[in-house]
Write a structure and sequence with these properties.
The chain is built from 11 helices and 9 strands. It has helices at 7-23, 26-33, 41-49, 69-81, 88-100, 104-115, 218-253, 265-294, 299-324, 336-348, 353-363; strands at 120-123, 138-142, 145-156, 163-170, 173-180, 186-190, 200-214, 255-256, 259-260.
Length: 366
């Protein structure tokens, strides 16, 4: 198993850090938080046209770049560092679901558009639950077509997605459907969120026309959620890494009793604990990304471990960042709260850490 980052991957990281450093300043993040769309269309076009990020995980035969999860995890880390406001994660999960489906025609038709920057999302959660077993939304035949009835909650970028992939109960269990973002009978409502940098929506379907992609979508959804967990863990790692850097920079210049607070032993111990959390999270992400690319049979357990650990690690580091910045860390003007809110919301996104630990225990037979 080779978990080392290659020279080419480091070059990708450097390019992304420069790009997001320029396009996602604290002031810009705050501006986008207040917009209805939640992202900058011009930057999104640059991500697709100049950097090819939306195409990264899509095979070349479908108009993509043909890279793997290790490269995608670097993208997510750098987006997490800069708290980037963009519908990237939602498109990655949607593309993953399409790739895992059995409909070659749908792949050839829909994936090139995602690679070019069309916004897509996967809708599966309902009510307050992220558990796929709780899906109750129904699909029914209407002549030769299919229509959907029901509600989906917490849909990533669901209010702006041009393509919505939906998991609903079909004739033989969970099935995957494709719905146009402006389809008749589809009502989309943006939800208030703790983390205003990541937009979520409630989608209501009332006799909404849909295209059947895969009639046996249980494995499709399971794989898409594993990839989603790894990608989110990578984003959490990037956020925790940057929060630690901010903290170290601050304690070097903040002075009390005539000396920098970073010289106090208690502060050193807390920073050391933060460092251990970040580096352990890095190991979990590297291993999960490797499993996604090279050992798919190990992906479910690796994804569960990475999501559970990185969720708690990122939140703990972000909370310590607030504390060690003192009073300024609690203010709206400081960026620390952006990382704290993102850490807390990401901890719950796709299921809380406890749920992933339970799944990991089941997978390893505990």
């Amino acid at each position: 198993m080779k978990l080392a980052v290659t020279e080419e991957q480091e070059e990708l990281r450097d390019a992304l850090r420069r790009f997001f450093g320029d396009k996602s300043s604290g002031a810009e993040v705050r501006r986008l938080m207040e917009t209805a769309e939640g992202y900058d269309p011009a930057v999104w076009e640059q991500m697709a046209g100049q950097l090819g990020l939306q195409a990264m995980a899509i095979p070349e035969e479908y108009g993509g770049a043909g890279f793997g999860m290790r490269e995608v995890s670097i993208i997510m880390q750098e987006m997490g560092r800069a708290v980037v406001c963009a519908p990237y994660l939602s498109g990655l999960v949607a593309a993953t679901a399409l790739l895992a489906s059995a409909d070659e025609g749908a792949k050839a038709e829909l994936l090139p558009a995602i690679a070019e920057g069309a916004i897509a999302t996967l809708a599966w959660s309902e009510g307050e639950s992220w558990d796929p077993a709780s899906i109750a939304m129904t699909a029914r035949r209407d002549g030769d077509a299919w229509v959907l009835d029901g509600t989906k909650s917490y849909v990533l970028d669901g209010h702006v997605a041009a393509l919505v992939l939906v998991i609903a109960q079909g004739e033989n269990g969970p099935a995957l459907f494709a719905v146009d973002g402006d389809a008749a009978g589809l009502t989309r409502t943006a939800l208030p969120t703790l983390d205003q940098t990541r937009k979520l929506a409630r989608l209501e379907f009332a006799g909404t026309p849909a295209r059947l992609i895969d009639a046996a979508a249980g494995p499709v959804l399971a794989h898409a959620l594993d990839v989603a967990a790894v990608a989110l863990a990578a984003e959490q790692l990037g956020g925790a890494e940057r929060a630690l850097e901010m903290t170290v920079d601050y304690i070097k210049v903040r002075r009390q009793f005539g000396r920098a607070i970073g010289s106090f032993q208690a502060i050193k111990h807390r920073c050391a604990d933060m460092f251990v959390l970040v580096e352990s999270a890095r190991s979990a992400v590297l291993q999960a990304a490797y499993a996604a690319d090279e050992r798919p049979s190990e992906l479910p357990a690796a994804a569960a471990l990475a999501k559970a650990y990185c969720s708690d690690a990122c939140f703990q580091v972000a909370a310590e960042t607030i504390q060690m910045h003192g009073g300024i860390g609690f203010t709206w003007e400081h960026d620390a709260h952006l990382y704290f809110k993102r850490a807390k919301s990401s901890q719950e996104l796709f299921g809380p850490p406890a749920r992933h630990r339970e799944r990991l225990a089941e997978l390893v037979g505990i």
